[in-house]
Amino acid sequence: MSSYISRWLKAPSASKRLISHLTQREGKLNSLLRRLGLQPQSGGRAAPGPRPISTTQVQKSVLIDDDELVTGIQKRELQLAKQGCTDPWGVGKIIRRGSGRENDPTVLPSAFDYRLVGCLCLDDRFAKWMWIEKDEGPKRCECGHYFVLKNVSPI
């Protein structure tokens, strides 16, 4: 038993395993641990147990759907998603250049009065960016292609 006590006293902090070994012994060791305050006294106050957790059950009928909470553009996007439209803004769609002549320009849809367009000209690695405005008429890129805005209804 003295080896247990000497190991316990030398350790900077007693390990759980060592304390469990010490507390299982009967006799003088229990009284020593009680005096050191490492074991509750018998008949005294017991150590507090786990804290009780209180929960309230939520009924599914009380929860509100997203359709009832959203408004504006987000509501329209949810409606379009239910109809099967996965890209309502047309962001994933690449518009191919048409003939690009002045009398037959490439038509770009826009719900606004202007749009930023990148033209991939021949033998060029980078796009040439330009703003196209609604009332301006056909706008010419550096490569010679013409672009014009077509007004479409917003979502």
From TrEMBL:
Top-level lineage group: Eukaryota
GO BP of this protein: mitochondrial electron transport, cytochrome c to oxygen
UniProt GO molecular function: metal ion binding; oxidoreductase activity
Naturally occurring in which organism (per UniProt): Drosophila ananassae
SUPFAM superfamilies: Rubredoxin-like (SSF57802)
GO cellular component entries: mitochondrial envelope; respiratory chain complex IV
Pfam families: COX5B
Keyword presence, Oxidoreductase: yes
CDD domains: Cyt_c_Oxidase_Vb (cd00924)
Keywords: Metal-binding, Oxidoreductase, Zinc
Gene3D superfamilies: Cytochrome c oxidase, subunit Vb
Record's protein name: Uncharacterized protein
